[in-house]
Fold this protein.
Amino acid sequence: MKEKEIIKEIIISGANDLKGLEKAKRKIMKKYKSLAPSNVKLLQKYHRMTSKEREALFLSCNMTFSAKRDMEIKNILKTRPVRSLSGIVNVSILTKPYPCPGECIYCPEEKGIPKSYLSNEPKEY
């Protein structure tokens, strides 16, 4: 319930940055005298709400629901800004659950040496 009230306070206050978010959190947490939920929990709560629930929440704050404001709230609640702009992109590769057959063109085939090493490469630097 606290999460919904914090989101409602964000809407009422018109917060559009982290400073406004923290101010809204403090205001509600002072009322409950407890710790604030994380931004992840707030974002989860916001995502779980249907579009009709979000519209109703905006209307209860005497505000009109707009896609632009919806995106602003989602961006405020994100824990990290987009990393791909700086060239850092996380990529996960899932492989099959059985061992590698080792028949790739670029895979070394030297006997008695692990595939991660080559006999003509230095062992240490």
The radius of gyration is 25 Å. The CA atoms of residues 4 and 104 lie 54 Å apart.
